[in-house]
């Protein structure tokens, strides 16, 4: 059955006015166009809907039944369309975003704070998960989109790179390598390393960089959070390689930061590693899914915050 919305609107106008010409005037159609539309509708339904005479137009039993239902359906449809159209200017609601731990700790808090300031009625709900679970949440539509390290194989996802940052070496300031402003990857050969575990989106890149520059990794500990890593480095268990975003520079001995650490806070040193190896931070969502207007607002806000955090040197301001 091929019945159009236009045919139903024309039929309802004729049924209400009992006149082809007046119905046409109300709809901006000629009388012949109205008549043709009614004929096509009757042919599609296989029923006569109107009794036509030279003086009047009267509804058949089938016409009266259709009129009763179509009037309600069109009213509901109009209400639905207005509600959907209103989403374009909506400023209240919740947007769920999944993010891997390092990004959840060092990028998303500023995004959430700015969202609250700029859009008080919009709640950014963060799901803090390992990267594989973030990608699963995106693919299953549990969240609107995810914030991840380049997952490489993701043909089913739309991606936008929002930040590129280098890896750096974190070590105790009394370690011999801390005397230099930058350290070669090859210098890490055979040294004890405390690294993020394989669930991290960065670990693949770190392992590849060590291998590419001839540094045989001697991994003594693998953990899921950089806070744990830094505590282990402070305890003298080894050195670590982390993305620059993870370095809390307010209490690190980094070039150009004369403030030093807070009282009673053990100091660590952060050094650039050469040749520079960078990771790409990106926003991802399902290709088959169009982001809602609210989600697009949050997407743009995270992009904006990330652009402001684009690294230059290892220096950080408090």
What does this structure look like?
This protein is an alpha/beta fold. The chain folds into three domains: 5-88, Arc Repressor Mutant, subunit A (Orthogonal Bundle); 93-162 and 280-308, Periplasmic binding protein-like II (D-Maltodextrin-Binding Protein, domain 2, 3-Layer(aba) Sandwich); 165-279, Periplasmic binding protein-like II (D-Maltodextrin-Binding Protein, domain 2), CATH 3.40.190.10. Helices cover 39% and strands 24% of the residues. The protein contains ten helices and 13 strands. The strands form three sheets. Strands 3, 4, 5, 6, 7, 10, 11, 12 and 13 form a nine-stranded mixed beta sheet that branches. A two-stranded antiparallel ribbon has the order 1-2. Strand 1 (50-52) and strand 2 (57-59) form a beta hairpin. The chain is rod-shaped. The protein starts with a helix and ends in a 10-residue tail after the last helix. Residues 256-262 and 313-318 have low confidence and may be disordered.
Summarize the structure.
With 318 residues, the protein is an alpha/beta fold. The chain has three domains: 84 residues, Winged helix-like DNA-binding domain superfamily/Winged helix DNA-binding domain (Arc Repressor Mutant, subunit A, Orthogonal Bundle), CATH 1.10.10.10; 99 residues, 3-Layer(aba) Sandwich (D-Maltodextrin-Binding Protein, domain 2); 115 residues, D-Maltodextrin-Binding Protein, domain 2 (3-Layer(aba) Sandwich). Helix content is 39%, strand content 24%.
């Amino acid at each position: 059955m091929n019945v159009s919305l236009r045919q139903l609107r024309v039929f309802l106008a004729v049924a209400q006015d009992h006149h082809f010409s007046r119905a046409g005037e109300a709809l901006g159609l000629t009388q012949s166009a109205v008549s043709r539309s009614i004929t096509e509708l009757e042919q599609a339904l296989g029923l006569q809907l109107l009794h036509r005479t030279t003086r009047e137009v009267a509804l058949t039993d089938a016409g009266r039944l259709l009129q009763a239902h179509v009037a309600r359906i069109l009213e509901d449809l109009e209400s639905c369309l207005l509600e959907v159209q209103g989403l374009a200017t909506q400023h209240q609601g919740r947007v769920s975003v999944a993010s891997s731990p390092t990004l959840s700790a060092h990028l998303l808090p500023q995004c959430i704070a700015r969202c609250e300031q700029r859009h008080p009625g919009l709640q950014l709900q963060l799901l803090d998960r390992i990267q594989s679970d973030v990608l699963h949440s995106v693919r299953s539509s549990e969240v609107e989109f995810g914030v991840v390290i380049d997952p490489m194989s993701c043909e089913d996802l739309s991606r936008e790179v929002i930040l590129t940052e280098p890896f750096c070496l974190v070590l105790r300031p009394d370690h011999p390598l801390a005397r230099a402003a930058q350290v070669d990857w090859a210098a890490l050969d055979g040294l004890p390393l405390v690294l993020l575990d394989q669930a991290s989106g960065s670990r693949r890149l770190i392992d590849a960089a060590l291998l590419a520059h001839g540094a045989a990794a001697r991994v003594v500990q693998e953990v899921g959070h950089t806070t744990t890593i830094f505590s282990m480095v402070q305890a003298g268990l080894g050195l670590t390689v982390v993305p620059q975003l993870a370095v809390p520079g307010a209490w690190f001995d980094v070039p150009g930061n004369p403030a030093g650490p807070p009282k009673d806070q053990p100091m660590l040193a952060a050094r650039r590693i050469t040749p520079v190896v960078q990771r790409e931070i990106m926003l991802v969502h399902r290709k088959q899914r169009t982001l809602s207007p609210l989600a697009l607002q949050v997407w743009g806000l995270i992009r904006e915050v990330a652009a402001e955090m684009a690294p230059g040197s290892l220096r950080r301001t408090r």
